[in-house]
Amino acid sequence: MSIAHLLHDFGALSQGKPVAITDVSLEEERLEAFEKGYQAGWDDCVKSQVEDGRRITADLAQNLQDIGFTYEEVHGEIMGAMQRLLQQITQTVLPPLSHAMLVPQVTEILHDLLETNGRQPVQLTAGPADLAILRRLTAEMPDLACTLTEDQTLASGQVLLRLGESERALDMPDVLLRIENAVSGFFQQNQRIVA
């Protein structure tokens, strides 16, 4: 038995019309194929360049966004650390410093009052916490007629100075409160600007 019926017969196709190829038509075919290949290569290049441009633009946008977040995070961390530091300074360093500055401040105010009003009796009024230090100050100025009075309503760091008709007040707790308020106000303002 033959297997010819299972195979395809290609003999019928050989009866077509012969194609005549001349050198001119062959050159035209080559030129056309070259033009198609060149155009396809050019299109691929343009497409690749457009895609590269989009990718670079997207990468740049992402990097700028990352930099923005990084800056905001660093700025927030620095401002938070500064706020904690300044709050510690105002709460732990400035109160003892203001107490140590009480005598120099009172001395400066006394000198100003004496220059303006001449030598007259001085009256110092302070709370119980500051009396001892002011007694030492008046002991260091024996030629100055000075009266020291205690006022239970005055807090530590609050002193009233009277020289004749002139009166001046020293309020170190108020100075500390203003410093604390200025620090808090600065950071609240900064948070509003950042937000």
Features:
195 residues; alpha+beta; four-stranded mixed beta sheet; 4 helices
Give the rounded overall mean pLDDT.
82
Count of DSSP H/I helices: 4
Shape: rod-shaped
Rg, nearest Å: 47 Å
Structural class: alpha+beta
N-to-C order of helices and strands: HHEHEEEH
Biggest beta sheet attributes: 4 strands, mixed
Gap between N and C termini, in Å?
93 Å
Q: How many runs of DSSP E, i.e. beta strands? A: 4
If strands are numbered along the chain, what order do they take across the biggest sheet? 2-1-3-4
Q: Which consecutive residue ranges, at least 5 long each, have pLDDT under 50?
A: none
Strand content: 5-15%
Helix content: 55-70%
Task: Report on the architecture of this protein.
- This protein is an alpha+beta fold.
- Helices cover 65% and strands 11% of the residues.
- The chain contains 4 helices and 4 strands.
- The chain has helices at 23-100, 102-117, 131-139, 172-194, and strands at 122-126, 146-150, 158-163, 166-171.
- The longest helix has 78 residues, at 23-100.
- The chain is rod-shaped.
- It starts with 22 loop residues before the first helix and ends with a helix.
- The model has no long low-confidence stretch (mean pLDDT 82).
Show the helix and strand layout.
Layout: H1 23-100, H2 102-117, E1 122-126, H3 131-139, E2 146-150, E3 158-163, E4 166-171, H4 172-194
Parallel strand pairs: 1-2
Antiparallel strand pairs: 1-3, 3-4
